[in-house]
Amino acid sequence: MTVFTRVDDRLGAFALRPLDPEADAPLLHRWVTHPKAAFWLMQDADVAEVTREYRRIAEHPHHDAFLGLHRGRPAFLAERYDPAHVELVGLHDARPGDVGMHFLCAPADAPEHGFTRAVITTVMAWLFVDPATRRVVVEPDVRNTAVHALNAAVGFEVVGTVAKPEKDALLSICTRARFLAATGAALVPDTAATPETAPTPEGASA
User: Fold this and answer.
1) Phi/psi of residue 70, nearest 5 degrees
2) For the whole prediction, is pTM greater than 0.85?
3) Residue 193 backbone phi and psi in degrees, to 5
4) 33 neighbors 42 (Cβ within 8 angstroms)
5) Higher per-residue confidence, 190 vs 83
6) 163 CB-near residues (< 8 Å, 6+ apart)
7) Given 13, 49, 105, 125, which residue has the most CB atoms within 10 angstroms?
8) What is the DSSP letter of 128?
9) What digits encode the pLDDT tens for the residues 11-22?
10) What angle in degrees, to the nearest 10, is found between the helix axes of 21-32 and 47-59?
11) 167-192 per-position pLDDT tens digit
């Protein structure tokens, strides 16, 4: 069951569905252990470890994961979390309506021009279609310059560097207004983008 769909003018249909930790683990294992996914920090994981990690996320009250589809085929991974409880506790002045985000594109032999930007635009549109989302928060590795450029392109502002146990991260924040101004994206509600599928940001209504 898809929870969100978006049609890109050039690249066609993108969608997200809830991740199945067991069924999707072999596919995810190929993605997260690929050399291009070094910043995902799972290079040495086996399929069982990937399954355990995404089962843990599925069971977490403030973190969830979704498989992204492009023209109906698996193409990216998206995670959503509440930064008041996950990833940035004690490192970020979390506000009601803050939502954290990770995304990872599947490795491709012949990448389509603009694909990664279309993916992050889709993920951001999915987050902001929920009226409870006021800001999206990200914390990529300071060395991940490609993602920094993508984040800037969709409206993120850098707050500063924060030291996490696994990395030094570039804390960045994007408001709905900045996202819309940067991308011109239309926030069209999808029938499955329902409150019961979303972890509730602290202070926001379910």
Assistant:
1) -125, 120
2) yes
3) -80, 65
4) yes
5) 83
6) 91, 169
7) 125
8) H
9) 999 999 999 999
10) 120
11) 999 999 999 999 999 998 878 775 44
